[in-house]
Design a protein that fits this description.
Blueprint (H helix, E strand, L loop, with lengths): L1 H28 L6 H25 L1 E2 L2 E4 L2 E4 L4 E2 L5 H5 L9 H24 E7 L10 E5 L3 E2 L4 E2 L7 H10 L6 H24 L1 E3 L2 E4 L18 E4 L2 E3 L5 H16 L1
Antiparallel strand pairs: 1-4, 2-3, 2-11, 3-5, 5-8, 6-10, 7-9, 9-12, 10-11
Helix pairs in contact: 2-4, 2-7, 4-5, 5-6, 6-7
């Protein structure tokens, strides 16, 4: 009887110890982004990763195979070549030292959403009205001529819908390390910041430097009716020039959002 009581006593102690350990564990789990300062640190880190990788990506984009008919060039899906913006490129500048796996997963969820969206956006981008005024009046063929710069936002892509706030958040949500409100707030803010900065980028970045030539234009009189519009000219070597993704602006959007949530 005595040994039974001792056994029950130690069993109760074990249960209490396990309960306390679980309580401590739950307390630690809820502290990934416990306050505004922690959220701002995350924002600074992620926006810096995006801005740095975006710059390298934008500088490496090459626009080729543009069809020029008359005074306008046609950029089709796939003509915006070069490497895509990859998750690995963004994570190259990330230091994992001293960070939990959950924190790392949150960083990868945000950067992965951008990589996925921008890959689809780049591959699906098209522009039907890139001006080549020289192509309206040529004889025999089109001499080397550059395009009039146009903003990226004046074209379109089926990937635009993947870069919306809702789509970005859904991507992050599918990869959330834990469904806790502090993490979800960070993801909602990140989706908002990325989407708004992407829209701003499209309006400020331009397609320039496409050199078009060749094709067939009317012969001059008296044998022909030229000069006239060219047909079948091709353009290549275009670039994206202008402001990059604004990491500082993204940070400002997120900080404002986080403060609104606390208020």
């Amino acid at each position: 009887m005595r040994y039974s009581r001792i056994f029950v006593f130690f069993l109760l102690l074990s249960v209490l110890a396990l309960s306390n350990r679980n309580a401590v564990g739950e307390e630690k789990r809820s502290a990934l982004f416990p306050d505004l300062e922690a959220r701002e640190r995350f924002t600074s880190e992620v926006s810096g990763l995006l801005e740095s990788a975006w710059k390298k990506w934008q500088d490496s984009v090459l626009i080729d195979n543009i069809s020029v008919e008359g005074s306008y060039g046609l950029l089709m899906p796939g003509d915006m070549g070069g490497p895509v913006l990859k998750l690995s490129d963004m994570m190259n500048g990330f230091s994992r030292k001293g960070k939990s796996q959950d924190y790392i997963d949150c960083v990868k969820a945000v950067t992965g959403a951008v990589a996925n969206g921008m890959r689809l956006w780049q591959r699906g981008y098209s522009h039907k009205n890139i001006p080549f005024p020289q192509g309206a009046s040529c004889t025999y063929t089109m001499p080397p001529s550059s395009n009039v710069p146009v903003t990226v936002g004046s074209g379109r892509s089926y990937g635009d819908k993947i870069m919306t706030e809702k789509a970005l958040y859904n991507y992050m949500l599918y990869r959330v390390p834990r469904y806790e409100e502090d993490v979800l707030v960070v993801f909602r803010g990140s989706a908002k910041g990325v989407s708004e900065c992407f829209i701003k980028w499209k309006k400020s970045c331009s397609i320039i430097g496409i050199i078009a030539s060749g094709g067939v234009a009317p012969q001059p009189a008296p044998m022909g009716t030229g000069p006239g519009p060219v047909r079948g000219a091709r353009g290549r070597n275009g670039k994206l020039v202008g402001p990059y993704f604004n990491g500082q602006r993204m940070k400002e959007i997120l900080v404002q959002y986080f403060r609104q949530q606390e208020g």
